[in-house]
Design goal:
heterodimer; A: mainly alpha; two-stranded antiparallel sheet; B: 2 domains
Amino acid sequence: MSASLDPSLNAALGSVLSPRTAFSVALLAIIALFPVYTMLTGDTFVLTLFTRVLILAIGAVSLNLIMGYGGMVSFGHAAYLGIGGYAVGILAKEGINAGLVQWPVAIAASALYALVVGALSLRTRGVYFIMITLAFAQMIYYVSIGLDRYGGDDGLTIYKRSQFGGFIDLNNKTFFYYLCFALLLASIYLVSRLVNSRFGLVIRGTRSNEGRMRAIGFPTFRYKLVCFVIAGAMCGLAGALLANHTNFISPAMMHWTRSGDLIVMVVLGGLGSLFGPLIGAVTFLLLEEGLSRLTEYPDLILGPVLLLVAIYVHGGIQGLLEGRRRG
Amino acid sequence: MARSLLQIEGLTRRFGGVVAADAITLDISADEVHAVIGPNGAGKTTLIGLLSGEITPQEGSIRFEGADITRLPVYRRSRLGLARSFQITSLFRDFTALDNVALAVQAHRGHSFRFWRDARGDDELCKPALAALARVGLAERAGVRVDKLSHGEHRQLEIAMALATQPRLLLLDEPMAGMGPEESAQMVQMLRQLKGSMTILLIEHDMEAVFALADRLTVLVYGRIIASGHPEAIRADAAVRQAYLGEKQGGDHGGRHG
């Protein structure tokens, strides 16, 4: 061992020990330990709350892929939660409980929806793109209200969670929690690979300067569309998890305010950062939970907090940890 | 004269009542440096846009290597070997200089539906990208983020990105825009080295640079070609002197150009 470290190694160590990384690692460790806390105290509240956090974080991770890295601000992302959830609920109601059927259907249906919406919306940009994604999500929302057989406006109770046979039992709270955690980590890892691959660089380049991308020879539309479909599929899985978590589906899952919540989580945590969506989901849902106990009008406090973050902090909480401020 | 690479015929583009390109007919030979000059608003940038595909013409045709490309989308033209640089620097600001050029290389190495492997460690992309950076004199700045580079370096990077696509026809939209005399001289030097290895269509306000580089010269006024030929002949042309060179004595850089 030499006394003076290689500079590149030094830099690597520096990035491992940066406040940003340290924070993410600490957060993951705490999340990993909640089931132990539940085991020791018998208190399941935290576990239930955080199962929900993890599931919505997967949705936020998928939104961050298109919005943070791809610059596609989708204001209809909750539609995928709904489609994934309804795939599970509808199949369960029809007596098909096998997870290996339900979940792939949830993912495929979401991907297909993303393909249609993306094909029609990705030729527009800015406000128009936002409005089209919102319009489609509203359409799906009203379709779900019209599904009388599946509860219509009232929603539908799922009596049996997805069945995987063998030792896998989604009714086991601890198991389900760790499954959600593992799927969240897998989705973050997937995004980390994607955004640094050739495909990812095309997506990020397109966000930065689409005209130039075309000028150097990229047919940008098809790359954006594929990215949009990947994100949709990922969020569809989150929807399947959510239906299993709540044992219930209803149109409220895909209300437009839910799409807004997902955007807020992503912006709050830090657009275009790997762990930002998780941090955003934790912060948002804890604030929502905590404030709703303190006051009847949690949004009255939540709103200004979000405004301050949006105005003053560049890069969300992740940016704050790096000491980045808006100039 | 040498083999013809690009044939423009009757190319017309109107924006409302303004005719930005008025029945432009022009023939560019392989390996020549062809400069297009003209006062502000003459339609020079429109011409580049029409050739690169960002603007579609209302009339006329463009043939490149014998093939009609009039309606081809931008990215397809890039694949055929047309590359452009932008008058107003158009880069990926949150990427490094190397990333910018590597993306241009990547666009021409198969498709990019590769989702897993880290593209930044890929020699197949980095090596040609570094070579393009070296060609414009930016090799040492490869790892620097674009927003940390100077204006002159941005201009160089613009060229490097165009070069990285291995163009047969390079469309340069005022490569010296906003540069000081020293940087301009370096740019002329660099472009002179490219001469002969590819065809260049150059739009430039810097007359010294134009006369130093161009094999042929075309003068554009109000979207119409008023003269085209060898630089010396153009210099002597009375109509040109009146329409353009005379009033340009002060030398006007930057600003808005049509």
